[in-house]
Amino acid sequence: MADLAARARDLDTQHAATDRRSLFHLPAGVVYLDGNSLGPLSRGAEEAVTDAVRRQWGEQLIRAWNESDWWGAPERIGDRIGALVGAAPGQVVVTDSTSVNLFKAVVAASRLRPGRSTVLTDPDSFPTDLYITRSAADLLGLTVELVPVGEAPARIAELGDSLALASYSQVDYRTGELWDLPALTRAAHDVGALACWDLCHSAGVLDVGLDDGAADLAVGCGYKYLSGGPGAPAFVYVATRHLAGFDTPLAGWNGHATPFAMSREYTPAPTITRARVGTAPMLSVLALEGALAAYDGLAVGQVRERSLSLTGFFLECLDALGIGLPVATPAEEARRGSQVSLRHPEAYAVVQALIARGVIGDFREPDIVRLGFAPLYLSHADVLAAAQHLEQVLSRREFEREDYRTRAAVT
Ligand SMILES: Cc1ncc(COP(=O)(O)O)c(C=O)c1O
Q: Where are the domains of the chain?
């Protein structure tokens, strides 16, 4: 145990340059391992919202759309997120939810590949991806095939020119497995199809590499690792080469080339602005911008290094403390996102027992204890504390308490 504590201290010293904890409000005594579900409040977000409410909304009133450039915020913040996901400026815009953006992306991608009948996605996708992909495909008369990522390249080759789109998550929300974005994108391109990526569990914690990986479209979430706040707006990426052909199914006035001309006809903006729909929820948009300040001065590669160190150290602690639960997350670094998921038949109750001890993670069906390691504010000392609490929850069988088995509305 003393060894682990010394190692945690050493690792924290080694990674001191990427420690951004002082920029976040985290309650004392809490180890927060759920930043992959709802990032915590940051000082940047708090200040941005306060300024947006008091000065911009309170004093500037409607003039704030121009004077504080509210109108340009979705593209401005899109470029900031673009820098984190490997997208050159002008390809990312902050708008809507991930679900709505995925709908726009699947329809637009299919329209970019007319005459092709099939869309491929992962049966283990986050459910909204399945529902949205099916609803988009139904509207267009396309077929959705559910093919696990590992089998996708072979199936893509078989489908050939009947494939319009392969739509996958870069990191599996349940297991935390990191998939090979460039390789799967290449497989889709080899048959003339497009690739769309859901970055909900990768944006802000690893080198997503959208441009380098030749991704066509991508969507992602603002409220997880980016810490934009509850219900923060999401983002959508459209590669420059597809912008002119990005034919949105949701033609709203914010995506118009000249919205204040109040024209009867829809003319899409020539830029990424065409992916916008209606008026942006400005307080949430600005909260997200404030939260992103936590990344200032950091390259995403440094964040990834810290993330791998945290998850790697957690795996080491599990071993050293004799916690023998099956690990659903790959140990291999190249295949590991920023979470560690463990399997336990009473996973829900294990998570509640951990929360009672101040270690906040979450449960995912059917048997996953999901622990997210958001690198900006977690330390190796936190990681060790979490592992020690887990060991006690298991060895003292705290998960057997009846009240830990009663499911809340949100798990
Ligand atoms: C992989 C993935 N995609 C999509 C979503 C849903 O995003 P939204 O609520 O913004 O539509 C989630 C939410 O947890 C998710 O994990």
A: 2-42+299-398, 69-295
* pLDDT for the residue 409: 85
CA distance 288 to 222: 7
The arrangement of secondary structure in 69-295, i.e. its CATH architecture, is 3-Layer(aba) Sandwich (3.40)
Provide CATH code, domain 2-42+299-398.
3.90.1150.10
What is the C-alpha to C-alpha distance for residues 62 and 69, in angstroms, rounded to an integer? Answer: 11
What is the 8-class DSSP label of residue 357? T
Q: Ligand 1 centroid vs 226 CA: distance in angstroms?
A: 13
Q: How far is the CA of 398 from the centre of ligand 1 (A)?
A: 31
Amino acid type, 145: E
Check whether 406 has a pLDDT greater than 90. no
Q: Which of the residues are catalytic?
A: 126, 198, 223-224, 370
Which residues neighbour 198 within 8 Å (Cβ) at sequence distance 6 or greater? Answer: 98, 102, 125, 126, 129, 167, 168, 169, 170, 218, 219, 220
Mean pLDDT (whole number) for 43-72: 98
SS3 186: helix
The residues lining ligand 1, judged by C-beta closer than 6 Å to any ligand atom, are: 97-99, 126, 128-129, 169, 173, 198, 200-201, 221, 234
Inform me whether the pLDDT recorded for 411 exceeds 80.
no
pLDDT tens digits along 8-19: 999 999 999 999
| Closest to 339 measured CA to CA, from 328, 350, 347 | 328
Q: What whole-number percentage of the chain has pLDDT above 90?
A: 98
The reported pTM is 0.97
3-state secondary structure (DSSP) of residue 217: strand
In one-letter notation, the amino acid at residue 397 is R
What count of Cα atoms within 13 Å lies in the side-chain half-sphere of residue 309? 25
**Cα–Cα distance measured from residue 44 to residue 65, given in angstroms and rounded to the nearest whole number:** 21
Token pair belonging to 221? 């979430």
Mean of the pLDDT values across residues 91-114? 98
